[in-house]
Amino acid sequence: MGAGGQMNVSKTEKDVLKRVPVSKTPFGLADLKKAIPPHCFRRSLIRSFASLFRDLIIIYTLFYIASNYIPLLPKALTYVAWPLYWFVQGTILFGFWLLGHDCGHHAFSEYQWVDDAVGFFIHTVTLTPYFSFKYSHRNHHAHTNSMEYDEVYVPKRKADTFYTEILNNGPGNVFTVILRVTLGYPLYLLFNIYGRDYGSFSNHFWPQSGIFNDSERGQVVLSDVGIMAVLYAFYRIVVTEGAKMTFFLYGMPLLVMGGFFIILTYLNHTHPSIAHYDSTEWDWIRGALSTIDRDYGTLFNWAFHDANPNHVIHHLFPTIPLYHASEARDAVKPILGDYYKFDDTPMLKALWRDTKECIYVESDESCEVKGVYWYYK
């Protein structure tokens, strides 16, 4: 049981790892939409801003306590207090970040300008270029689990021996997890690591990057200006408060937030039981259903606004706000049947298992359909 309500609880490891169907679905998006109560598609300014202010109040309270009281503790206690602050603040910051992500999907309010204004604020103060991420993430939703066109967590092929041979062992798995959790998020933004190969240097800050089209490049510049303003504010804080205090109060929580971004997005899109498709087999609805709902318990689900146990419905209907997602998910699950994938494996256990089991993808030699790709190790 999580904050999102009763889930489709997995009974055995075999059930969890059972492959999802890859045949064309017997239902369409319209069938799923009819099953969802109409109010689930309505976005409330009051409820959305209540979520925003909830996070802002918690973030400020944690910051106030940390900045005013942790320095007064005996030195031995600070070795516990600071990491606790980093973890809790980073957790809440990721939930806060998720509200900005919802703004990018026009799931915060009925007004696009409100969504963009709020999303720009949230993502900019968490050092994410709002419009740049909005557009790359749109591409991800448009091409989920496409071998050629998906935007993030594009799987490696067996021919990539650096991953399939050099890193395909215990030490390699450990290195992969550590790199992913600590630096994965900034590396994704700066170098498009885990992303699609555009044939040239691509990142989320370069307006001429292949990620963006000509109509989007001006807003990429606006995103960059926002990031530079926040970085300048951090510089002024370093001058007045010192580098160590600035890093402890701001830097470490943002690194924790980035770690959660990588862990949760990786686990929502990587699993031994889901398939990827090349252009001969891919279609939008099977791609959207090649995602996984995860339940990490009441506290994490609450902190993350129930995003992780509602990722499948988010890919099907991304404008549904987070506070209606659980109801919408439960409404379509009977129609989805075996096409719906849920895994309640604890977060760290799932991260380690899927890192070990999901090294590369290849088509199943025993299957006549060659455009479907499964994870192997």
TrEMBL record:
Its keywords, alphabetically, are: Membrane, Oxidoreductase, Transmembrane, Transmembrane helix
List the record's Gene Ontology CC terms alphabetically: membrane
Known CDD domains for this protein?
Answer: Delta12-FADS-like
Annotated GO molecular function terms are: oxidoreductase activity
Q: Which Pfam families match?
A: FA_desaturase (PF00487)
Compartment(s) where it occurs, according to its Swiss-Prot or TrEMBL record: Membrane
Q: Which GO terms describe its biological process?
A: lipid metabolic process
Q: What are the residue boundaries of the Fatty acid desaturase domain, all occurrences included?
A: 81-340
Span-the-membrane segments of this chain are 52-70, 76-99, 218-235, 247-267
The family line of this record is:
Belongs to the fatty acid desaturase type 1 family.
| Name listed for the protein in its UniProt record | Fatty acid desaturase, type 1
